[in-house]
Amino acid sequence: MDYPDYRDYRDGNQSLLGLAAHGATALSSSYAGVPERMVCNEVTGNYFEVLAVQPAAGRLLVEADDAETVISYGVRQRKFGGGPGAIGARIDLNGNPFTIVGVAEKGFRGTVASQAFDLWVPLRTQPRTWPGLSTGIMDNRSAGWLLLFGRLKPGAGVRQVDAEMKTIAARLAHSRRTGRRPRFNSCVGHQAGHAVVSGWNIHWLSRCNRIHAPGAASSRRDGGTRLGELGRDLLTHRLRDVGRLLHPRTPRGTS
Predict the structure, then answer these.
(1) What is the pLDDT of residues 194-209, one digit of tens each?
(2) Alpha-carbon torsion 209, 215, 220, 225, what sign?
(3) Which end of the chain, N or C, is less surrounded by CB atoms within 10 Å?
């Protein structure tokens, strides 16, 4: 999905406590003169808040951040020996200075099942950290480059979210006068149960890279990983800019 549409979905729904967006890229990093290729997740300021992830040290990203980064627990162990020296340290990303403000909790790798991220940066840093994208892509309504996930409000259900997203999609299509509807396409791949509602896949994040929420009960169905019942309130959608939300196809394996 593109960033302007993300904002419309984020601000136009009443069923989610939060809706976050993120994109992934590889970049060149340098710390203490030692270069390293890293996998970076560009995220909105509410990314960690929606996930209820806690820092292992320092703090996590917030909306106001612009040249700050959060590193993974593994990067801290590898580059800083697990010590406190990571917080406040400078790291260059694609030649641009960033300040490490936090370390993600141990076991947190991100929200893409097939990828472990080394660090997270604010989405607004895209021109510096992901310069290969088109100029002005943050304002482009035809560029599908973001993935989204959200947390349900207490008492809200899948049908309510579905109806709200359809309404927003129809409004966006009407405003463009093109008849195109952004489609909620295949979800980020998690090995979890899913429900198909009105043509878009809703995958509960019950096994998302060992995410665990404070206070959540353990789920032995996950093979003992401390994920709790996070999947009950987190929806993850792979949102692309093609297709027809209002003319869904029946997914394979469903009746």
Answers:
(1) 222 222 333 333 233 3
(2) positive
(3) C
